[in-house]
């Protein structure tokens, strides 16, 4: 399993979103409170963020635990952003290790993260892979269930699907082939789409900003937990929640 978050709003240091919250992503790497599968998220981490004037995000990913990377702490102190996606990883059995397997995955203007697992990986999921063109399969960033889910989402986005449609269609298709856990996050720097399917997801909206996360990063009021099997669409101005119905 994993923990992840996405943010849109006023420019803030990365540290304020990822490292400083008392119960936030940094602490969730070793002591998550709401995680239902796995206990430690030390198999890698990553952050992707957007800079003003450039629609293509930057990414910083590592294979080790977030608490062991002093360079990231220094970067997070000085880099400010209006939009971010970050994740800490608990690897699924049979999936690749290494930096390339850590979220966020990215292509074009998109950042993506998968919190969950696909039981039966890789043996029982050939039908999913068979639906992708060969060049897209060969272009997977890593040999992992999350990278395959990302390829399925990206294929739909490039075919013209809206972000929420791409996530919903992917979740419902994958669920037909596996008893999967599919909490997904997707952003282009101006909006966030997310699904809750098998684990926790919540969001908090303040004036001009929105934060979507696997679990609350603090005890402050305003956090709203999504029902399981839901699709969340969010901008800095507000959120919409819809049921995911097979």
The quaternary state of the protein chains shown equals single chain
So how many helices?
7
* Domain count: 1
> Which strand order does the major sheet show?
3-2-4-1-10-9-11
User: Beta-strand level of the residues, as a percent range?
Assistant: 25-35%
Q: Provide the gyration radius in Å.
A: 16 Å
Q: What is the CATH homologous superfamily assignment?
A: Aminohydrolase, N-terminal nucleophile (Ntn) domain
Quick overview:
This protein has 246 residues and is α+β, with helices and mostly antiparallel strands. The chain has helices at residues 14-18, 25-28, 70-78, 126-130, 134-138, 145-158, 163-177; strands at 2-13, 45-51, 54-62, 80-89, 105-107, 110-117, 181-187, 192-196, 202-206, 209-213, 224-225, 230-235, 238-243.
What does this protein look like?
The protein is α+β, with helices and mostly antiparallel strands. The protein has a single domain (2-243), classed as Aminohydrolase, N-terminal nucleophile (Ntn) domain (Glutamine Phosphoribosylpyrophosphate, subunit 1, domain 1), CATH 3.60.20.10. It has 7 helices and 13 strands. The protein has helices at 14-18, 25-28, 70-78, 126-130, 134-138, 145-158, 163-177; strands at residues 2-13, 45-51, 54-62, 80-89, 105-107, 110-117, 181-187, 192-196, 202-206, 209-213, 224-225, 230-235, 238-243. The strands form 2 sheets. Strands 3-2-4-1-10-9-11 form a 7-stranded antiparallel sheet. α6 (145-158) crosses α7 (163-177). The model has no long low-confidence stretch (mean pLDDT 93).
């Amino acid at each position: 399993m994993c923990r992840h978050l996405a943010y849109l709003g006023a420019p803030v240091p990365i540290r304020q979103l990822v490292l400083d919250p008392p119960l936030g992503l940094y602490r969730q790497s070793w002591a998550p409170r709401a995680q239902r599968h796995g206990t430690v998220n030390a198999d890698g981490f990553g952050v992707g963020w957007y800079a003003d004037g450039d629609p293509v995000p930057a990414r910083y990913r590592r294979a080790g635990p977030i608490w062991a990377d002093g360079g990231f702490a220094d970067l997070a102190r000085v880099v400010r952003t209006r939009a971010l996606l970050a994740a800490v990883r608990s690897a699924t059995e049979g999936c690749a290790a290494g930096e390339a397997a850590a979220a966020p995955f990215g292509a074009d203007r998109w950042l993506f993260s998968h919190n969950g697992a696909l039981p039966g990986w890789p043996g029982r999921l050939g039908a999913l892979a068979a639906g992708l063109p060969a060049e897209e399969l060969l272009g997977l960033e890593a040999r992992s269930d999350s990278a395959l889910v990302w390829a399925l989402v990206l294929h739909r986005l490039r075919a013209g699907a809206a972000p929420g449609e791409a996530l919903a269609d992917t979740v419902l298709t994958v669920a037909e082939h596996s008893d999967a856990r599919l909490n997904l996050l997707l952003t282009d720097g101006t909006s966030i789409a997310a699904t809750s399917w098998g684990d926790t997801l919540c969001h908090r909206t303040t004036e001009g900003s929105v934060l979507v996360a696997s679990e609350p990063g603090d005890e402050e009021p305003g956090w709203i937990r999504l029902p399981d099997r839901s699709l969340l669409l969010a901008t800095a101005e507000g959120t919409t929640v819809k049921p995911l119905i097979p």
